[in-house]
Amino acid sequence: MRNAFSVERLHVPRQPSMIPGTNGIREALSTATTADSNGWLPLTKELWMPDLLPLTVEEVLTTTRSVRKRLDLERPVEHEVIEQCLRIAMQTPSGSNRQAWQWLFIEDPAIKQKLADIYRKQFDVTYRVTPVGAYDDPKTQAQAVRRRESAVWLADHFEDVPLIMIPCQAGRVDGAGVGEQAGFWGSLLPAVWNFMLALRTRGLGSAWVTMNLARPEGERETAEVLGIPYETYTQAGMFPIGYTKGTDFKPIPTPEVSAVLHWDRW
Ligand SMILES: Cc1cc2nc3c(=O)[nH]c(=O)nc-3n(C[C@H](O)[C@H](O)[C@H](O)COP(=O)(O)O)c2cc1C
């Protein structure tokens, strides 16, 4: 079935918003029964991909932000959506194609409460009590203040997010050299990021969160709560997940490319 997933080829109008169950694309596709003048076959509900936001690849890549305050705490996240995102994440390369990852998703309120407490043990004695940095540029200053408010909000609401994801990978690299670290983290973190991109295309969001691992005991305490075999599996963070309130996220300002780009030599 060629081009089975191409909405454009079927001339189905793009929708301004994507809400599962109310998506006009799905309705339009389900009623199309004949091939178009190019011979493209109609999509059916069976072939149809999940509802996706009408974003280009570049829009997804440049607008996947850390979402904290805009996580919808009221709306449950379906297991099916997480499975779809994980299927996508599992297409990511890993060293020797080991795919040594394991992914935990926590929705039990009592367990989320324990994880939130572990997070705050670090957050409350460091980030929360550290003054926001002072910047000359008022815009940068305002961003720093917003980032702080957002981070504090998440710390205060961690147990309330619909899901918490803990990505893990077989092996431990505590004290290892750069080569081993690079291979280890390079075999997991791109998959985590692809997972976050897949969330974004489905109207969900997350934030990259590692502060629970900042205290040496943080990872072990998390492992004990979740039954992760600490000696043989390493955790990469603690990711809150939920549908986002609204789906309009913007690219952030960055320095000129010339400030970071090198050709041939440093
Ligand atoms: C490795 C890493 C660790 C992070 N740890 C935390 C964290 O513990 N808590 C938190 O609220 N945000 C955390 N963040 C989110 C950053 O603050 C955020 O990515 C950054 O401010 C840029 O914002 P953006 O993701 O919206 O572009 C982390 C991000 C990265 C990449």
Structural write-up:
The protein has 266 residues and is of the alpha+beta class. It has two domains: 1-54, no CATH class; 65-243, NADH Oxidase. It is built from eight helices and five strands, in the order αααβααβααβαββ. It has helices at 24-31, 57-63, 79-89, 109-123, 138-157, 178-186, 189-201, 216-226, and strands at 101-106, 163-170, 204-206, 233-235, 239-243. Strands 1, 2, 3, 4 and 5 form a five-stranded antiparallel β-sheet that branches. Helix 3 crosses helix 7 and helix 4 runs antiparallel to helix 8 (216-226). The longest helix has 20 residues, at 138-157. The protein binds flavin mononucleotide. Flavin mononucleotide binds next to helix 5.
Per-chain topology:
Blueprint lengths: L23 H8 L25 H7 L15 H11 L11 E6 L2 H15 L14 H20 L5 E8 L7 H9 L2 H13 L2 E3 L9 H11 L6 E3 L3 E5 L23
Antiparallel strand pairs: 1-2, 2-4, 2-5, 3-5
Helix pairs in contact: 3-7, 4-8
- Classification by helices and strands: alpha+beta
Oligomer: single chain
Largest sheet: number of strands, sense, barrel closure:
5 strands, antiparallel
How many separate structural domains? 2
Shape call: globular
| Helicity range | 25-40%
CATH architecture of the largest domain: 3-Layer(aba) Sandwich
Q: What sequence of helices (H) and strands (E) makes up the elements?
A: HHHEHHEHHEHEE
- Share of β-strand residues: 5-15%
Number of helices: 8
What Rg is obtained from the alpha carbons, in whole angstroms? 21 Å
What is the typical, i.e. mean, pLDDT?
Answer: 88
Attached small molecules: flavin mononucleotide
Which fold name is given in CATH as the topology of the largest domain?
Answer: NADH Oxidase
**Terminal CA distance:** 49 Å
The CATH class of the largest domain turns out to be: Alpha Beta
Residue stretches low in confidence (pLDDT < 50, at least 5 long) are 1-26
How many DSSP-defined strands?
5
CATH superfamily of the largest domain: NADH Oxidase
